[in-house]
Design goal:
Low-confidence stretches: none
CATH topology of the largest domain: Rossmann fold
Number of strands: 9
Mean pLDDT: 91
Number of domains: 2
Oligomer: single chain
Strand order of the largest sheet: 5-6-7-3-8-9
CATH superfamily of the largest domain: P-loop containing nucleotide triphosphate hydrolases
Order of helices and strands: EEEHEHEHHHEHEHEEH
Distance between the termini: 31 Å
Length: 259
């Protein structure tokens, strides 16, 4: 498909360890199109994060092919094709919020004026305007994660890779950030690959939900969401939402049975 941004075909990944080989991914084939919001859900150790790391060029598959923006993952990494948001915000405590966001821009050699303009823009995007001079310890966990997202957006990559960014937050904060992330996605039209353990989060956020089996990680179902892109939180009470959630749950169960 011409608008496919990320294309995996027959992807395998086996880690060699002292206790023998660990088969992390097996025969993973998937197209992620430009502007998609794709969630990966499955049990711990099923290869969700491993697949994200393969896209980022941080792990090398042992078989199959993977392209990102028509390049190898390593070429895409060097071309700064993606921003990466981890489960922990990973902000440097000795740098202000603005300083943390500017860090990748400094490394990439952007001018001071461009750094300032981009930092102000992404702080506005994540609703943190006015917090540039604060330090991470002065912000709540949810605000720190928003700053981490701002840092990943600062150099304006087309793709955003998000590895359980809200997993450690309480449900109320998580709901709020889910809403904000959807608004951010609508404004920026990024392609987002998002790892989660939460069925409601996966269904609420995604245009496509990828259900994975226990190790070796295989795709057991790919669900194209029929939900509208404009999604208030109470859409989670609708029959359509509940039906998709049931299908995700069934896919997770089937993966356990087949594993």
């Amino acid at each position: 498909m011409t608008d496919a941004t990320i294309v995996a075909a027959g992807l395998d990944l086996t880690f060699q360890t002292n206790d023998g080989p660990v088969h992390a991914l097996k025969d993973v084939s998937l197209d992620i199109n430009k502007g998609d919001f794709v969630s990966f859900i499955g049990p711990s150790g099923c290869g969700k994060t491993t697949f994200l790391r393969c896209i980022a060029g941080l792990e090398t598959p042992t078989a199959g092919t993977l392209s990102v923006n028509g390049m190898t993952p390593d070429e895409a990494r060097r071309a700064r094709a993606y921003g990466y948001v981890f489960q922990a915000a990973g902000l440097y405590p000795w740098r202000t919020i603005g300083g943390n966001i500017r860090l990748p821009l400094e490394i990439m050699g952007f001018s001071k004026s461009e750094q300032a303009e981009r930092t102000a823009r992404v702080l506005e995007l994540v609703d943190l305007a006015g917090f540039e001079k604060k330090y991470p310890w002065q912000l709540s966990g949810g605000m720190q994660q928003r700053a981490s997202i701002a840092r990943a957006l600062a150099f304006d990559a087309d793709i955003l890779l998000m590895d359980e960014p809200f997993g450690a937050l309480d449900e109320i904060v998580r709901d709020h950030l889910n809403e904000q992330l959807l608004q951010l996605w609508a404004r920026t039209e990024k392609t987002i690959a998002f790892v989660t353990h939460s069925i409601p989060e996966a269904v609420y956020l995604s245009t496509k939900i990828v259900v994975m089996s226990p190790r070796p990680g295989r795709i057991t179902d790919v669900i194209e969401s029929p939900l509208p892109r404009d999604r208030p939180l109470d859409i989670r009470d609708t029959p359509e939402f509940i039906e998709i959630a049931h299908r995700v749950r069934d896919g997770l169960r089937a993966g356990h049975v087949d594993a």
